[in-house]
Amino acid sequence: MDTIASFRDRLGDPRRFLVLYGTTPPRADAPPERSAELAGRLARSLADLPLDGVVVYDVQDESGRTSEPRPFPFFPAGDPRAHACRLQALTGLPAISYKCVTAFDEGGWLAWLDETVQHYQVAALSLVGAATPTPPPGALAVDRALRLAKRLPGAPPLGGVVIAERHSPAYDESLRLLHKAAAGCDYFISQIVYQSEPTIRLLNDYLAACARAGAAPKRIVLTFAPCGRPKTAEFLRWLGVAITPETERAILADPAPFRRSIQMCCDHLRAILEQEVARRLPLGINVESVSNHPDEMAASLELLAALREVERRYRAV
Protein backbone atom coordinates (compact mmCIF):
# COMPACT_ATOMS: atom_id res chain seq x y z
CA MET A 1 0.00 0.00 0.00
CA ASP A 2 1.39 3.45 -0.86
CA THR A 3 2.13 6.03 1.82
CA ILE A 4 -0.83 8.30 1.10
CA ALA A 5 -3.32 5.41 1.11
CA SER A 6 -1.77 4.03 4.29
CA PHE A 7 -2.06 7.32 6.11
CA ARG A 8 -5.60 7.88 4.83
CA ASP A 9 -6.55 4.52 6.35
CA ARG A 10 -4.98 5.47 9.68
CA LEU A 11 -6.81 8.78 9.71
CA GLY A 12 -10.12 7.15 8.89
CA ASP A 13 -9.97 4.39 11.50
CA PRO A 14 -11.93 5.76 14.51
CA ARG A 15 -10.57 2.98 16.75
CA ARG A 16 -7.00 4.14 16.20
CA PHE A 17 -5.39 6.73 18.46
CA LEU A 18 -2.98 8.59 16.20
CA VAL A 19 0.53 9.36 17.51
CA LEU A 20 2.70 11.94 15.69
CA TYR A 21 5.99 13.73 16.25
CA GLY A 22 6.48 17.30 14.99
CA THR A 23 9.66 18.98 13.82
CA THR A 24 10.88 21.87 11.68
CA PRO A 25 12.98 21.85 8.49
CA PRO A 26 16.65 22.81 8.63
CA ARG A 27 17.53 26.42 7.93
CA ALA A 28 17.15 27.49 4.31
CA ASP A 29 20.87 28.28 4.12
CA ALA A 30 21.95 24.87 5.47
CA PRO A 31 24.20 22.92 3.06
CA PRO A 32 22.58 19.74 1.69
CA GLU A 33 24.89 17.52 3.73
CA ARG A 34 23.87 19.33 6.92
CA SER A 35 20.18 18.91 6.11
CA ALA A 36 20.75 15.21 5.48
CA GLU A 37 22.66 14.89 8.75
CA LEU A 38 19.88 16.51 10.77
CA ALA A 39 17.23 14.32 9.16
CA GLY A 40 19.28 11.20 9.82
CA ARG A 41 19.82 12.16 13.46
CA LEU A 42 16.09 12.68 14.03
CA ALA A 43 15.22 9.46 12.21
CA ARG A 44 17.54 7.51 14.52
CA SER A 45 15.93 9.14 17.57
CA LEU A 46 12.46 8.16 16.38
CA ALA A 47 13.38 4.66 15.24
CA ASP A 48 11.97 2.70 18.17
CA LEU A 49 9.02 4.91 19.03
CA PRO A 50 5.38 3.85 18.46
CA LEU A 51 4.56 6.52 15.86
CA ASP A 52 1.96 6.80 13.12
CA GLY A 53 3.72 9.66 11.36
CA VAL A 54 5.93 12.73 11.52
CA VAL A 55 4.88 16.37 11.09
CA VAL A 56 7.08 19.01 9.44
CA TYR A 57 6.05 22.61 10.09
CA ASP A 58 6.20 25.51 7.65
CA VAL A 59 8.16 28.00 9.76
CA GLN A 60 6.89 31.59 9.49
CA ASP A 61 8.24 34.83 10.96
CA GLU A 62 4.91 35.74 12.65
CA SER A 63 6.37 39.03 13.92
CA GLY A 64 3.23 40.85 12.76
CA ARG A 65 1.07 38.82 15.14
CA THR A 66 2.27 40.61 18.27
CA SER A 67 4.18 43.70 19.29
CA GLU A 68 6.31 41.64 21.67
CA PRO A 69 9.85 40.88 20.45
CA ARG A 70 10.48 37.34 19.25
CA PRO A 71 12.36 35.46 22.03
CA PHE A 72 14.35 33.39 19.54
CA PRO A 73 15.70 34.90 16.31
CA PHE A 74 13.88 33.99 13.12
CA PHE A 75 15.81 32.22 10.38
CA PRO A 76 14.07 31.24 7.13
CA ALA A 77 13.66 27.47 6.97
CA GLY A 78 13.91 25.13 4.03
CA ASP A 79 11.00 23.64 2.13
CA PRO A 80 8.99 21.50 4.57
CA ARG A 81 8.03 19.16 1.72
CA ALA A 82 11.66 18.25 1.07
CA HIS A 83 12.37 17.57 4.74
CA ALA A 84 9.13 15.60 5.07
CA CYS A 85 10.04 13.42 2.09
CA ARG A 86 13.52 12.77 3.48
CA LEU A 87 12.13 11.79 6.90
CA GLN A 88 9.48 9.63 5.27
CA ALA A 89 12.17 7.73 3.38
CA LEU A 90 14.45 7.39 6.42
CA THR A 91 11.81 6.37 8.97
CA GLY A 92 9.27 4.56 6.82
CA LEU A 93 6.62 6.71 8.55
CA PRO A 94 4.02 8.83 6.75
CA ALA A 95 5.05 12.50 6.79
CA ILE A 96 2.72 15.50 7.03
CA SER A 97 3.94 18.76 5.55
CA TYR A 98 2.49 22.07 6.74
CA LYS A 99 1.99 24.92 4.30
CA CYS A 100 0.97 28.54 4.86
CA VAL A 101 -1.33 29.43 1.95
CA THR A 102 -1.58 33.20 2.33
CA ALA A 103 1.33 33.97 -0.01
CA PHE A 104 -0.52 32.41 -2.96
CA ASP A 105 -3.18 33.52 -5.37
CA GLU A 106 -5.31 30.72 -6.81
CA GLY A 107 -3.07 30.12 -9.81
CA GLY A 108 0.07 30.00 -7.71
CA TRP A 109 -1.57 27.65 -5.23
CA LEU A 110 -2.65 25.23 -7.95
CA ALA A 111 0.85 25.25 -9.44
CA TRP A 112 2.37 24.54 -6.01
CA LEU A 113 -0.10 21.72 -5.44
CA ASP A 114 0.66 20.17 -8.81
CA GLU A 115 4.38 20.32 -8.07
CA THR A 116 3.74 18.72 -4.68
CA VAL A 117 1.78 15.82 -6.13
CA GLN A 118 4.25 15.28 -8.98
CA HIS A 119 7.55 15.60 -7.09
CA TYR A 120 6.89 15.24 -3.34
CA GLN A 121 5.07 12.15 -2.15
CA VAL A 122 4.13 13.51 1.27
CA ALA A 123 1.45 11.54 3.08
CA ALA A 124 -0.65 14.60 3.93
CA LEU A 125 -0.75 18.39 3.84
CA SER A 126 -1.79 20.67 6.72
CA LEU A 127 -2.87 24.12 5.54
CA VAL A 128 -2.53 27.21 7.69
CA GLY A 129 -3.60 30.80 7.16
CA ALA A 130 -2.28 34.17 8.23
CA ALA A 131 -0.69 34.47 11.68
CA THR A 132 -2.18 37.96 12.05
CA PRO A 133 -5.88 38.68 12.78
CA THR A 134 -6.10 40.63 9.51
CA PRO A 135 -4.78 38.65 6.53
CA PRO A 136 -2.75 40.53 3.91
CA PRO A 137 -4.74 41.89 0.91
CA GLY A 138 -5.40 39.20 -1.67
CA ALA A 139 -4.32 36.38 0.67
CA LEU A 140 -5.77 32.99 -0.25
CA ALA A 141 -8.20 31.83 2.44
CA VAL A 142 -7.69 28.38 3.93
CA ASP A 143 -11.25 27.26 3.05
CA ARG A 144 -10.72 28.20 -0.60
CA ALA A 145 -7.30 26.55 -0.64
CA LEU A 146 -8.87 23.36 0.74
CA ARG A 147 -11.60 23.32 -1.90
CA LEU A 148 -9.09 23.82 -4.71
CA ALA A 149 -6.75 21.15 -3.33
CA LYS A 150 -9.57 18.64 -2.94
CA ARG A 151 -10.25 18.81 -6.68
CA LEU A 152 -6.70 17.91 -7.64
CA PRO A 153 -6.26 14.30 -8.79
CA GLY A 154 -3.90 12.44 -6.49
CA ALA A 155 -4.14 15.03 -3.70
CA PRO A 156 -3.12 13.69 -0.28
CA PRO A 157 -5.32 14.01 2.83
CA LEU A 158 -5.69 17.63 3.92
CA GLY A 159 -5.51 18.97 7.44
CA GLY A 160 -6.02 22.20 9.32
CA VAL A 161 -5.24 23.88 12.63
CA VAL A 162 -7.45 24.05 15.72
CA ILE A 163 -6.92 26.47 18.61
CA ALA A 164 -9.11 25.66 21.59
CA GLU A 165 -8.20 28.85 23.44
CA ARG A 166 -9.91 31.06 20.85
CA HIS A 167 -13.19 29.10 21.10
CA SER A 168 -15.83 31.49 22.42
CA PRO A 169 -19.37 32.64 21.57
CA ALA A 170 -17.86 35.45 19.52
CA TYR A 171 -15.35 33.17 17.78
CA ASP A 172 -16.91 29.73 17.49
CA GLU A 173 -14.02 27.37 16.81
CA SER A 174 -16.35 24.37 16.62
CA LEU A 175 -18.22 25.92 13.69
CA ARG A 176 -14.92 26.79 12.04
CA LEU A 177 -14.01 23.10 12.21
CA LEU A 178 -17.33 22.18 10.59
CA HIS A 179 -16.79 24.71 7.78
CA LYS A 180 -13.25 23.53 7.15
CA ALA A 181 -14.39 19.92 7.07
CA ALA A 182 -17.06 20.82 4.53
CA ALA A 183 -14.34 22.47 2.43
CA GLY A 184 -12.27 19.29 2.43
CA CYS A 185 -10.37 19.12 5.73
CA ASP A 186 -9.77 15.52 6.84
CA TYR A 187 -8.15 16.15 10.24
CA PHE A 188 -7.03 18.89 12.62
CA ILE A 189 -3.84 19.37 14.63
CA SER A 190 -4.09 21.62 17.67
CA GLN A 191 -1.91 24.37 19.00
CA ILE A 192 0.21 23.30 21.98
CA VAL A 193 -1.97 22.39 24.97
CA TYR A 194 -1.04 23.67 28.44
CA GLN A 195 -4.61 23.83 29.77
CA SER A 196 -7.12 20.99 29.48
CA GLU A 197 -10.34 22.94 30.12
CA PRO A 198 -10.48 24.89 26.81
CA THR A 199 -9.85 21.69 24.87
CA ILE A 200 -12.56 19.77 26.74
CA ARG A 201 -15.05 22.60 26.12
CA LEU A 202 -14.19 22.72 22.42
CA LEU A 203 -14.41 18.93 21.96
CA ASN A 204 -17.87 18.85 23.56
CA ASP A 205 -19.12 21.77 21.47
CA TYR A 206 -17.62 20.31 18.28
CA LEU A 207 -19.29 16.95 18.85
CA ALA A 208 -22.63 18.70 19.48
CA ALA A 209 -22.19 20.83 16.35
CA CYS A 210 -21.49 17.72 14.27
CA ALA A 211 -24.63 16.06 15.66
CA ARG A 212 -26.75 19.09 14.77
CA ALA A 213 -25.31 19.20 11.26
CA GLY A 214 -25.51 15.45 10.71
CA ALA A 215 -21.76 15.42 9.99
CA ALA A 216 -19.19 12.83 11.01
CA PRO A 217 -16.55 14.40 13.28
CA LYS A 218 -13.01 14.63 11.96
CA ARG A 219 -9.95 13.51 13.86
CA ILE A 220 -8.42 16.02 16.27
CA VAL A 221 -4.76 15.59 17.18
CA LEU A 222 -3.67 17.36 20.38
CA THR A 223 -0.17 18.86 20.47
CA PHE A 224 2.05 18.86 23.54
CA ALA A 225 5.58 20.17 24.14
CA PRO A 226 7.98 20.12 27.09
CA CYS A 227 9.24 23.29 28.72
CA GLY A 228 12.34 23.50 30.87
CA ARG A 229 13.79 27.01 30.73
CA PRO A 230 12.52 30.59 30.97
CA LYS A 231 13.29 31.38 27.33
CA THR A 232 11.18 28.45 26.17
CA ALA A 233 8.26 29.52 28.36
CA GLU A 234 8.57 33.01 26.92
CA PHE A 235 8.56 31.62 23.39
CA LEU A 236 5.49 29.49 24.10
CA ARG A 237 3.63 32.60 25.24
CA TRP A 238 4.88 34.52 22.20
CA LEU A 239 3.51 31.75 19.97
CA GLY A 240 0.10 32.25 21.56
CA VAL A 241 0.11 29.15 23.76
CA ALA A 242 -2.13 29.61 26.82
CA ILE A 243 0.41 28.89 29.53
CA THR A 244 -0.63 30.62 32.75
CA PRO A 245 1.80 32.47 35.04
CA GLU A 246 1.06 29.89 37.74
CA THR A 247 1.95 27.02 35.40
CA GLU A 248 5.11 28.75 34.26
CA ARG A 249 6.23 29.42 37.84
CA ALA A 250 5.50 25.85 38.91
CA ILE A 251 7.60 24.45 36.06
CA LEU A 252 10.56 26.79 36.37
CA ALA A 253 10.72 26.64 40.17
CA ASP A 254 10.88 22.85 40.16
CA PRO A 255 14.35 21.28 40.60
CA ALA A 256 13.51 19.10 37.57
CA PRO A 257 11.54 21.47 35.29
CA PHE A 258 11.33 19.12 32.31
CA ARG A 259 9.97 16.33 34.47
CA ARG A 260 7.39 18.75 35.94
CA SER A 261 6.27 19.95 32.49
CA ILE A 262 5.97 16.35 31.29
CA GLN A 263 3.87 15.52 34.36
CA MET A 264 1.61 18.51 33.62
CA CYS A 265 1.15 17.50 30.00
CA CYS A 266 0.24 13.97 31.10
CA ASP A 267 -2.27 15.39 33.59
CA HIS A 268 -3.88 17.46 30.83
CA LEU A 269 -4.13 14.50 28.46
CA ARG A 270 -5.54 12.33 31.25
CA ALA A 271 -8.18 14.97 32.07
CA ILE A 272 -9.21 15.10 28.41
CA LEU A 273 -9.34 11.33 27.94
CA GLU A 274 -11.46 10.91 31.07
CA GLN A 275 -14.29 12.82 29.37
CA GLU A 276 -17.12 10.97 27.66
CA VAL A 277 -16.51 13.05 24.52
CA ALA A 278 -13.08 11.44 24.16
CA ARG A 279 -14.78 8.10 23.57
CA ARG A 280 -16.87 9.54 20.76
CA LEU A 281 -14.28 11.50 18.79
CA PRO A 282 -11.27 10.16 16.88
CA LEU A 283 -8.29 11.69 18.68
CA GLY A 284 -4.52 11.60 18.70
CA ILE A 285 -1.42 13.29 20.08
CA ASN A 286 1.43 15.19 18.47
CA VAL A 287 4.62 16.00 20.38
CA GLU A 288 7.16 18.65 19.45
CA SER A 289 10.06 20.61 20.89
CA VAL A 290 9.78 24.35 20.34
CA SER A 291 13.54 24.77 20.56
CA ASN A 292 16.44 22.77 19.16
CA HIS A 293 18.30 22.65 22.47
CA PRO A 294 19.48 19.04 23.05
CA ASP A 295 17.87 18.63 26.48
CA GLU A 296 14.52 19.91 25.23
CA MET A 297 14.68 17.58 22.23
CA ALA A 298 15.42 14.70 24.62
CA ALA A 299 12.54 15.80 26.85
CA SER A 300 10.16 15.77 23.88
CA LEU A 301 10.95 12.08 23.31
CA GLU A 302 10.37 11.37 27.00
CA LEU A 303 7.08 13.26 26.77
CA LEU A 304 5.97 11.18 23.80
CA ALA A 305 6.57 7.95 25.70
CA ALA A 306 4.81 9.30 28.81
CA LEU A 307 1.74 10.48 26.89
CA ARG A 308 1.55 7.17 25.05
CA GLU A 309 1.51 5.38 28.39
CA VAL A 310 -1.32 7.63 29.61
CA GLU A 311 -3.33 6.74 26.53
CA ARG A 312 -2.64 3.01 26.91
CA ARG A 313 -3.74 3.00 30.53
CA TYR A 314 -6.86 4.95 29.64
CA ARG A 315 -7.80 2.40 26.98
CA ALA A 316 -7.14 -0.47 29.37
CA VAL A 317 -9.72 0.85 31.86
* Order of helical and strand elements: HEHEHEHEHEHEHEHHHEH
Per DSSP E runs of 2 or more residues, the count of β-strands stands at 8
The description of the largest β-sheet is: 8 strands, parallel, barrel
Number of separate helices: 11
Give a verbal description of the structure.
The chain is of the alpha/beta class and 317 residues long. 46% of the residues lie in helices and 14% in strands. It has 11 helices and 8 strands. It has helices spanning 3-12, 32-46, 80-91, 106-119, 142-150, 173-183, 197-213, 230-238, 245-253, 257-273, 294-316; strands spanning 18-23, 53-56, 95-100, 124-128, 158-162, 187-192, 219-224, 283-288. An 8-stranded parallel beta barrel has the order 1-2-3-4-5-6-7-8, surrounded by 5 helices. The mean pLDDT is 92.
